[in-house]
């Protein structure tokens, strides 16, 4: 008799701890279409490249930061045996959708409602942090705290691998004049902060070492960067 894998959704946020956030699609009304849009625009292929670059090993404990509807978390749990994967995101409707998908796929996962600037995990408890197209959603005032939290939860020798817009040597023009409005003003500061190695500087500023762009690409007319770093 087969058993159903454990899929958990944790929402311990107090009402006064919930702050405004930008949902995965930029608009709450578009959430039902997010996974279809991800497939059509090629985001799913970039997720696969992110996981391949991360070098996650069997048995690793993995945090998917800004997991949205859980696509990267599901990919890791499905393809790398024995991984213990937690997805973190402030968007409760997106997390509910991620939970349903994990249950249908019979993949053990934990999803937690929370923010990157206050990751609800113990110190040195994670082997790898991955994040896909999420950090440009983080308000400018919370970016340093988010990077510091990533460094805190990583074990010594642990790694972080990030996919987002921006990259090495790319000026603001590389995001495309028509691209910023697609995200709205809430994301514009985060997108601009990513250019010219902004993510590399962010991770290095949090005390992580060997921070560098490991790959690049394009998506819907904008530059993509894949950035990695490790905890000494």
UniProtKB/TrEMBL annotation:
Alphabetical keyword list: Methyltransferase, S-adenosyl-L-methionine, Transferase
Show where the Methyltransferase domain sits.
62-158
Please give the Gene Ontology molecular function terms for this protein: methyltransferase activity
**CDD domains referenced in this protein's UniProt entry, alphabetically:** AdoMet_MTases (cd02440)
Signal peptide boundaries = none
Q: Which Pfam families match?
A: Methyltransf_25
Mind telling me which SUPFAM superfamilies this protein's record contains? Answer: S-adenosyl-L-methionine-dependent methyltransferases
One GO BP on record is:
methylation
The superkingdom of the source organism is Bacteria
User: Which Gene3D superfamilies does the UniProt entry name for this protein?
Assistant: Vaccinia Virus protein VP39 (3.40.50.150)
Against InterPro entries, the record matches this protein to: Methyltransf_25, Methyltransf_Superfamily, SAM-dependent_MTases_sf, UbiE/COQ5_MeTrFase_CS
Name this polypeptide is given: Methyltransferase domain-containing protein
The record lists the organism as Cellulomonas algicola
């Amino acid at each position: 008799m087969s058993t159903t894998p454990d899929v958990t959704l944790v929402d311990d946020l107090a009402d006064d701890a919930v702050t405004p956030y930008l949902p995965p699609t930029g608009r709450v009304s578009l959430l039902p279409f997010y996974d279809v849009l991800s497939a059509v625009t090629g985001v799913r292929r970039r997720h696969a490249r992110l996981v391949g670059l991360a070098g996650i090993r069997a048995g690793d404990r993995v945090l998917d930061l800004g997991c949205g509807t859980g696509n990267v978390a599901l990919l890791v749990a499905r393809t790398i045996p024995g991984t213990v994967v937690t997805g973190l995101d402030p968007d409760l409707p997106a997390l509910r959708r991620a939970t349903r998908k994990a249950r249908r796929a019979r993949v053990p996962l934990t999803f937690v409602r929370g923010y990157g600037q206050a990751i609800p995990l113990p110190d040195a408890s994670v082997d790898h942090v991955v994040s896909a197209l999420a950090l440009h959603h983080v308000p400018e005032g919370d970016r340093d705290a988010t990077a510091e939290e990533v460094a805190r939860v990583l074990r010594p020798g642990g790694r972080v691998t990030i996919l987002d817009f921006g990259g090495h040597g790319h000026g603001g023009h590389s995001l495309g004049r028509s691209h910023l409005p697609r995200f709205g003003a809430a994301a514009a500061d985060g997108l601009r902060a990513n250019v010219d190695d902004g993510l590399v500087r962010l991770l290095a500023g949090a005390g992580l070492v060997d921070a560098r762009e490991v790959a690049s690409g394009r998506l819907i007319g904008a530059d993509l960067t894949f950035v990695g770093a490790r905890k000494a």
